[in-house]
Amino acid sequence: MGGELKRSPPMFNIDGDVAMFGKSVRLFKLLGFSVKIDISWLILALLITWSLAKGLFPTYFENLPTATYWWMGVAGAIGLFFSIVFHELSHSLVARNYGIPIRGITLFIFGGVAEMHEEPQTPKSELLMAIAGPISSLVLGGVFYGVHLIGKHTMWGEPVHGVLIYLAIINLILAGFNMLPAFPLDGGRVLRSILWSWKDSLRWATRISSQIGSAFGVILIILGAINFFSGNVIGGVWWFLIGLFMRSASQMSYQQLIIRKALEGETIERFMKKNPVTVPPSLSLYELVENFIYKYHFKTFPVVKQAELLGCVKSKRLKEIPREEWKKQTVGDIVEKCSADNTIAVDTDAVKALSAMKRSSNSRIMVVDKNNKLAGILSLKDLMEFLSLKIELEDKD
Q: Among this protein's residues, is 88 annotated catalytic?
C-alpha cells in the first residue's frame, strides 16, 4: 500500500498513565470498561476518511463513483475505531486479570490508550499486558483478510473488499508499529519488562526504556522534517508531531514513576496541615473575603459547625455572585458538600491522594478521620515540597 498511504496519518496507540487528554465524551461501556473519545480523535477521523476517500481507495480501486469512495472512507474510519478499541480492550482485560486498575479506554488524536491507575506489579504481568495489544491486532488483521478471502466467492463487490483489505493491512501496521522498542509503545513496555526481570529494578528499566523511547521520538522528528522539506508536507508535519508526542510521553512516564516510588507507602497524615483554618456556615461572603481569603490566601476553606464538617467553600464560587450580594449571602448558601472530589481519608496512600487531586483539579483537599471528622488539610504545595525533598535526599540513580 504505497502512494497516498504515506500521506495519510499513520495509526498507533500509546499506552500508559500519561496526561494527554482534553475534553472527552463517554460513548459506551464494554466488558466493564468505559470507552471514551477525546475531541481530538474527531479530527483524526475526518483526516482518515478524507485521505481514504480522496487518496488511497481511488488509487487502488479505479473508476468507482465518488460517493462510493466516501462511503468506503467512512467504513474504513469506523473499522479503524473498532480496531483500536479491540486493541486497547485486550490490554485492559489482561491488566484486570493481574489486578491492575484500568479507568477506561480513551481514543485521542494519536490513537488510543488504556488508562492505568498504577504500574504492573511484576515483569510477567507487564510483558503479557504489553503483547496482548499487538497480538490482538494481528488476529484482527487476519480475521479481516480471512473475511475478504471468503467474500471472493460472493457478490460483495470491490468496495467491500477494498475496505476489508485496508483494515487487514492497517491492523498489521498497528501491531508492527506498536512493537517498536520505544517506551511507552507496547514494544517499549516489552523491553522494560525484560530489563526489569534482568536487573530486578523497575526504575532502572523505566529509565533505560524511556531514554530509548525519547531517542525514537527524536528520530521521528528528524524524519518529519526531511519529509516536510522533500514535499510531503502533511506526512512530514504528522511524523514531526508524533515524534514530539513520543518524546514527551516517554520522559513523562519516567517522571511519573519517580513520583510514585517517592510517595509509595507514605500516608497523607505525614504532611497534611493539622488544625486548619475553618469557617462557619453563618459567615457572610463579605467577611469570608475580607477576613479569610485576603488574610490567609487560600482558595478553599473547610466549613465546620459545632465540630461537624459540612463541606468546603471555594473562592471561585464568589465570582458567580454579584458583589452587592456578598453581605446578604452566607457561606452556608454556597457550601460544597463533602464528596470524593474534595475529601479524603487520613490513612490514604499519598500516591492515591495525588491522583485524586489531579482528577478533581483541587489544589487543597480536606482530610477526614474514621469518624468523618476534619483531621486536616492536604495541599498540593505541601505534597510537592515533601516530594522534592525526598527525591533530593534519597535519589541515587
A: yes
